[in-house]
Amino acid sequence: MPQNNTTIRPTLNTTLPEPPKLLCFDKEEFARHHFDVDEFVAKSRRSVDLETLRNDLAVYNKSLKSALVELINRDYADFVNLSANMVGLDKGISNIQTPLGQLKEEILETQTRLKTMQKNIDSYIENKRTIDKTRATLIDLKKLVELVSSTENILYKGSTNNSDYLERVCWQYNIIDHLSNKHSNISIVVSILAPRIDAITTTVNQRLAGLFQQGMDENNRALLAECLNLYCSVGKQNIAVSLYRTKYIQPYMNIITVDVNGAMFADYLAFAAKNCVTIQEIGMKNGGFNFLIEGVWPEIVDQLSRRSGSMFSSAQPAKFHERFLRASQFVAEFQTLTGEPDRFLNHPAYKEFAGKWSFNVYFQLKFQEIASRFELVATQESLTDSDCDSQASLLVTQRLIECVNACWNEKVYLQPLAHKFLRLTLQLLSRFTTWAEGTLEKSTAQDNGKLLYDVNLVRGKLASIYADLIEAKLREINVSFVCNGFREIGSTLRRIESVLSTKLVDSISGQGCLALRGVQDIPRLYRRTNKEPPRTSLQYIRAVVKPLDEFHSSYVDKLPAELMKHIIVETLAIITNRFAEIASDVLSSVKKMEDSLRRLRAGKSVNKATTSGGPTDEEKIHQQMRLDIEALGARVDSLGVERVDIAGWERLDKLDMIQTNTVPGADE
């Protein structure tokens, strides 16, 4: 069976000998990585004194010394064998040192030769590359000289009215332009060929311009198509557009009357739709020329900038708004004519036109107008009622709704300012919440109802403000950001609603509980008065529910049914609990009084029998309590809530009002 040669490496725990028994410490204490003497002594002193600790440590020290001697004796033979095995090792190392040195020298020599050979090869390759490049350059220069001479011969000797020769010239000109640009750093190209190439370029432009004008004057669609293709082949599209703008657009634009109100927009559209149809159609099919975008539109922007710069001024916001809408309608119609809306919107001339409008100044004027109108009311010390025809109860809420609507009014709102009007809307709503929170601290009970209604009104309008006013106009704005803003404002308004509801409940219930003092007067009405048994409830019940009735009648059609029910139920819960407490105390007092009187009568006239033909005073008090509770329940029913929903009603309804079983005045 093979033996397992795996060596078990000893650890500190396995090396330490087992200490004698009954020591005051554990050997594991010394094996910890962070052994601390002071900590060890302090810990040991809790169980033994220092003398005992010293003796135990001396005993353990002796066991450690014995274990050390035993360990040395056990491994002594291995140490001796290791020394014997190393005899002659130096001689063996010396024997292989010389061959290894020779091998190293040979390797270094070979490496040096390889580096020299690599350097020579790289130099040869570089020289060959230079020669090939020079040969290619000479071939290109030779071809360039030949093409320049050939093109000059064709241009200056050929027929200027022949489009076929122009096509060949354009083909050669493309090669000339490519080679001249490729070798523009060579002196011969710069000093000798450059003037000749410039002359060829000028002549080609003139011949193409003549061909273009001929096609325009004759309305020759085939000739125009061929000319535009030639322009495209030599990369001179901008020259064709510039020529068309100078010869055929500017003269017409210069005679159009330009005014700040935009009357010229109709003339611009008429020109684009009538005079540019042919060239636009041919250009789009041959080379992708869009003369409306590249030629007509830049000229329109230039005309407006030079002749009607005041059109872009926002000194008069209403006029600015009107002019911008008219201009936007014109731009939309012109964009449709171009056939390439994305290309039109990315054109530098369109960006220049859009940048001329003083949107920031316009918004600042509108911001001051809208924000100051709301802030003027929000900073008033006292609350002012709204106008009679307003949905809101308070003037500040009326102003908020008016200002938010003004931000998105068709006579104020501009699409480029959508993000700013959105921010203003959120600022107005946030300012309203801040105002409402500040008003909570100083509002009266009467103001709390109006404030609650207005806060609920604004919270209810958040969805319609977003859906009807904002959503359709914010297609390019982050919807999640907008929703988060409205959601945060809605949460704040909901919290304010909760605080106002609590204040209203406390105020109304406080007034009702004051009227409950009438419960304490019931015993005086029937004790020793010989008064007839009660048939109706007392007047204090009306006083108890009067504040709640008034609030309900004022806001039942204004507040949501759920919120109204919550306020009524919470108010009645406080009132009924207080009613039950007072009634319980009164009945308990009455019962004690009647029991005392009954015992007193029984002691004075034991043999005298008394009879009574009607209810006792205690029974009358019980009956009155029951009538009052039923009257309160009837008022609860009239408020549209269920009695079972009121916390404390069951306690009040089950109050012990049963007549006592003892017959008053009976002698035993």
Give an overview in words.
The chain is mainly alpha-helical. It contains 26 helices and no strands. The longest helix is centred in the first third of the chain and has 69 residues, at 89-157. It is flat and about 155 Å long. The N and C termini lie far apart (113 Å).
Task: Label this structure with key terms.
mainly alpha, 0% strand, 668 residues
Topology:
Blueprint lengths: L11 H4 L12 H4 L5 H9 L4 H36 L3 H69 L5 H20 L4 H32 L2 H13 L3 H19 L9 H10 L2 H9 L5 H17 L9 H22 L2 H5 L2 H8 L3 H20 L16 H13 L10 H23 L4 H26 L8 H37 L1 H4 L1 H5 L13 H16 L5 H44 L12 H22 L10 H5 L15
Helix pairs in contact: 5-6, 5-7, 6-7, 6-8, 7-8, 8-11, 9-12, 10-13, 16-17, 16-18, 17-18, 17-19, 18-19, 18-20, 19-20, 20-23, 20-24, 23-24, 24-25
**What is the first-to-last residue Cα distance?**
113 Å
What percentage of the residues does DSSP assign to strands (E)?
Answer: under 5%
SSE succession: HHHHHHHHHHHHHHHHHHHHHHHHHH
Instruction: Please compute the radius of gyration using only Cα atoms.
Output: 53 Å
Structural class: mainly alpha
User: Ranges with pLDDT <50 over ≥5 residues?
Assistant: 1-10, 606-611, 657-668
Concise structural overview:
The chain is mainly α and 668 residues long.
